[in-house]
Structure formats: C-alpha cells, structure tokens
Design brief:
This protein is α+β, with helices and mostly antiparallel strands and about 170 residues long. Helix 1 runs antiparallel to helix 2 (about 35-60). It is about 45% helix and about 25% strand. This is PH domain-containing protein.
Length: about 170
Amino acid sequence: MSGRYPPEALKADGLRAGAGLALTLGPFLIAQPHPLIAAPLLAGAALFGVFALRTGQRRFQRIAVDATGIRQHGPLGRAIRWDQVETVGLSYYSTRRDRQGGWMQLTVRGAGRRIAVESTLDGFDRVAAAVAAAVRGRGLPVSEATRDNFVSLGHAVDPPRPSPFQR
C-alpha cells in the first residue's frame, strides 16, 4: 500500500512559500534595504526557499509500506526495513488553542535514515497502522505522547499483555 500528498495541500503550501518569498525578497526589487533590515529579510527568504523546495519534493514523493518496511520513493528517496527501526515518534501540531484542527507527523528512524510523513498524506492511517504494528511486534519503547497519538488514531502500540491466567 502506498500514498501520495494530495495536490490541494501542496498547492496551499506552494502559495504560502511564494507569498513568503515575495514578502522577503520584494523589498530588494524596490530599494536597497539597510543591512539591519536586509539580514532578517534574507534569513526569512532562505527559510521560505527551503519550504518551497520541500514542498516541491513532496509533490513527487510516494510513501509505501509493506511486510518488509517503509519506503519513500521520489527525490531523496530512502527505505527502512522494519527490523532496522530504532525510534518512532507521532506528534500532533495544533493550529488552535482548543486543539481543534492541526496535523500529525509520523517520524520513523533507523539504519541512519529518517522518514517523516504528515497526516495530509493520502493513506496516512494505513501507514500509521503498519508502523504501530512494527512498534508492537518489536516491543520498541515510545514516548507517552506518541502512545496517546497512536491510540487517538485507533492503533495501540503497546505489546499485548499476557493474561494472568496463562502460564
């Protein structure tokens, strides 16, 4: 199973990156800003430039999970086998104080690689389910926040506990 980032989400990110670049580089088209103004504008432009490149990368990216592991196809692609997974984190980023709205980011690390997937990905729930199964199967420790976030998606990450009635 695999998923891609939907064009609508990437379009919005592209517009944000373009607006940020216009606001930070625009003053250089009109005048030559004082160095105390130019330095923060250029720093902001660099950040928006990186965001634009990242958005472009995600346009061509596909995330796949199967019995062997998780793979990121496309520019700067990488793969991590389930037996190589060392740490997993699932973070929730709220856009409002009442914690309504927002997104999740799933990060899998192992074998010197890192694959991060945002909840805007089509098929994010299937990816999260596969990662949760790998965490359970390997008995990997996760933070309390990661555990709670997996549970909120309906995926337990704690290994099943043996019944006290079994030997």
